[in-house]
Amino acid sequence: MNDVEIRNLKKKFRSFMAVDDVSFDIKHGDFFAILGPNGAGKSTLMKVMMTLSKNYSGEVRILGYDVKKDVNKIRGNIGIVAESTILYDKLTALENLLFFSGLYHTPRWKAIEKSEKLLKSVEMWEWRDKPVNKFSTGMKQRINIVRSLMSDPEILFLDEPTASLDLQSAETIRYILREANNAGTTIVLTTHLMDEAEEMADRIAIMNFGKLIAAGTLEEIAAKVKNDRKSLKIEFEEDEVEKYGRIFENKGIEMETLKNTLELFYSNDIELEKIIDLVSVSKMPVKSINTTTETLDKIFLKLTDHKRQGLK
Ligand SMILES: Nc1ncnc2c1ncn2[C@@H]1O[C@H](COP(=O)(O)OP(=O)(O)OP(=O)(O)O)[C@@H](O)[C@H]1O
Ligand SMILES: [Mg+2]
Fold this sequence. Notes:
The chain is α/β, with parallel strands linked by helices. It has 2 domains: 4-223, Rossmann fold (3-Layer(aba) Sandwich), CATH 3.40.50.300; 229-311, UreE, C-terminal domain (Alpha-Beta Plaits, 2-Layer Sandwich). It has helices at residues 42-49, 71-75, 93-103, 108-121, 137-149, 167-182, 194-200, 218-228, 241-250, 269-281, 296-311, and strands at residues 4-13, 16-26, 31-35, 57-62, 65-66, 78-81, 155-159, 186-191, 203-208, 211-216, 230-235, 255-258, 261-266, 288-291.
């Protein structure tokens, strides 16, 4: 049994498809990152997995339980770090942790012991008796994540846990997530930072416009993307880029203009031949021509940017 099993998940807001036919699995013990640009549908997908949203079609199983039928069984075994922090502002850091442990019926001595260990690991032990409303965003988020770990969840779901944090706070959070994962907790987080996903996750799912465009280990994704998409850079005299660009555009070739260079994208030899034919038939005065090998994050940025521009 996988910790998470999602089949053909669709979630609409009126007629807008925010999550569009997404299927994937997450194995126990995985560190799984869902990567995508703003508006990709990451939070919408996350809310369904966190059992906070039921109005969807398709099948979603967490720890073997159906999200629509067995919410309570799931909730006792998962930790949730949603977009906004779940803390009581007027209570101190420690009071918050003990309060939430109480909800899970953890014995008080055990909760105190665990609070101390976790607060120390995020360098917040000295702050335990200060009310949360005195804390910075980064400090609140550290306490918020510690709160989610108090119940020793099987799976911890986090929606952009490091967004809007400074480098130190973000690093502390990554540290505690790694620790939790090493201790056996499955971690599922969203991020729009390629570096973060690359650094932390065993497996990555990439979303764009509600769809899952790739999933797997970084190596698997890199192999797929590299096979799927190559580009050719053609340099022209500056005043000719636009004119020749239109020829490619009219033939439906995806491209990007950078100063006096056109970058033309293709996925297979037939498309490449089409580009080369156009160059020769139109007698284009080419200054230089180059194929590109690009880093993974650049390719993703381009992939997602292209589709975005297409919608405008
Ligand atoms: N409650 C809602 N009602 C209507 N539309 C919504 C609602 N929630 C999200 N959307 C839309 O669904 C799409 C996906 O939103 P979502 O918040 O899941 O994206 P995201 O990947 O988490 O983006 P971000 O990186 O900005 O957090 C967006 O276009 C958003 O406007
Ligand atoms: Mg979001």
